[in-house]
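Structure in, sequence out. Go:
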């Protein structure tokens, strides 16, 4: 049997593994919530450490903590933020809806580590107390919502935005590279008027840019922090300047302009900002799904599909069909999008679970929101580097099919009218002839004018070619 030490909380004595930095309340939660094995992610634990470190510094400035104790707490909390003690955060995300267990997990780990830094023993609450010192001026009810905001903001700035920039750049480069390649456009998966392959890729790049704009639009609300509201939003048992000062201290620590919420009651009871951010992330997931699916279709074949582009060959695609290569990156990206769709549903339901002064589904909001940010960022990275950057266009194939496209007759409507153009299309398809051939056979236009009107490159540049209606 492994060695244990005895720690106490308000409910009595608890046996804690001797090696563990956590204490009695964490141990009870370990035993109470053996549900999923899913722990709070690294970005959230980092945010917890930052909050506790900044709280210690603010409480020292306010004269509420002596310098020696405050500095030890700040150092221990910074170690938590840096990931030094992640193994000491074992709690399941499916726990008390306020996240109190995880807040106390942080308080106990930091208190015990601070005791060691001060030369004392773990569990010596007279030296550093998890509630009275580490949690001073705070409540789980304002800490956990704040950590959701802090963790999400940091993950967006440090991980998601750089990944979006790389994907945008990769798509934009392909838009330039493919700008002179004319291909058949498609609507309803059916042949439509020509577009340039570069125009399609410019659309993909614009989707990513607009998704970033949507996410950026949510950030002002994400930067607002509930800290300072404590138990129910009134700020009981905290200094009136604590909320403002800790937001300023967190800004200095992260470079992100956090600020005290405009209304503590809303900040703790309602999590609509998480829903708003999740909605913007869902929009990105929708865009990625569309882009990835288009690439998958254009790559289909290579002999019996569209075969317009070739994606990088990354791995064998079949355990039974030799030589088969599949579009694995687009498929992975599409599955990421599906997961984000599901995460958004959970976040929405969880955010609707506010009762009076507190939301009671905070841990699951934290898990799903941070998961969405993480997998979207990673998906953008692999889509850019392992897929988009290596795309090769099958120019001759696309241009040949574009020139044979019967829907090119659309360009004839200003000259011969809609009905006559429809007759041309029907005849061309029935007799397997080109539009050019049929129009000349029917004597509808002279060849020089027909050549001018059926310039497929000019068709991709927009505008209206005037003509004399011939019957429409």
């Amino acid at each position: 049997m492994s060695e244990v030490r005895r720690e106490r909380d308000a409910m009595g004595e608890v046996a804690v593994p001797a090696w563990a930095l956590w204490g009695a309340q964490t141990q009870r939660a370990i035993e109470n919530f053996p549900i999923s094995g899913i722990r709070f992610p690294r970005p959230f634990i980092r945010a917890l450490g930052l909050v506790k470190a900044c709280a210690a510094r603010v409480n020292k400035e306010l004269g509420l903590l002596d310098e020696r104790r405050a500095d030890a707490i700040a150092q221990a909390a910074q170690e938590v933020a840096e990931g030094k003690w992640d193994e000491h955060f074992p709690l399941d995300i499916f726990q008390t809806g306020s996240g109190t267990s995880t807040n106390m997990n942080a308080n106990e780990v930091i208190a015990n580590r601070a005791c060691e830094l001060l030369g004392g023993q773990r569990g010596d609450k007279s030296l550093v107390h998890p509630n009275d010192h580490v949690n001073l001026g705070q409540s789980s009810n304002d800490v956990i919502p704040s950590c959701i905001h802090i963790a999400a903001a940091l993950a967006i700035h440090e991980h998601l935005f750089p990944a979006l920039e790389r994907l945008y750049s990769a798509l934009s480069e392909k838009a330039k590279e493919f700008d002179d390649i004319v291909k058949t456009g498609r609507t309803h998966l059916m042949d439509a008027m020509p577009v340039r392959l570069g125009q399609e890729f410019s659309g993909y790049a614009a989707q990513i840019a607009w998704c970033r704009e949507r996410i950026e639009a949510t950030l002002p609300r994400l930067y607002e922090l509930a800290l300072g509201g404590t138990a129910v939003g009134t700020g009981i048992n905290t200094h009136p300047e604590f909320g403002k000062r800790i937001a300023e201290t967190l800004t200095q620590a992260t470079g992100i302009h956090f600020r005290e919420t405009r209304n503590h009651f809303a900040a703790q009871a309602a999590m609509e900002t998480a829903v708003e951010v999740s909605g913007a992330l869902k929009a990105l997931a929708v865009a990625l799904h569309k882009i990835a699916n288009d690439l998958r279709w254009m790559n289909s074949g290579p002999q019996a599909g569209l075969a317009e582009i070739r994606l990088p060959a990354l791995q064998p695609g079949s355990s039974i069909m030799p030589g088969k290569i599949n579009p694995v990156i687009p498929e992975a990206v599409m599955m990421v999008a599906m997961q984000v769709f599901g995460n958004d549903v959970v976040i929405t339901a969880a955010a609707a679970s506010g009762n009076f002064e507190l939301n009671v589904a905070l841990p699951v909001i934290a898990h799903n929101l941070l998961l969405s940010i993480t997998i979207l960022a990673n998906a953008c990275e692999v889509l850019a580097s392992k897929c988009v950057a290596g795309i090769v266009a099958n120019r001759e194939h696309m241009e040949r099919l574009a020139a044979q496209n019967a829907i090119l007759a659309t360009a004839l409507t200003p000259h011969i009218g809609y009905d006559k153009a429809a007759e041309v299309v029907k005849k061309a398809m029935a007799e397997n002839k080109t539009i050019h051939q049929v129009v000349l056979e029917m004597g509808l236009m002279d060849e020089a004018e027909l050549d001018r009107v059926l310039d497929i490159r000019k068709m991709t540049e927009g505008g209206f070619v005037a003509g004399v209606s011939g019957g429409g």
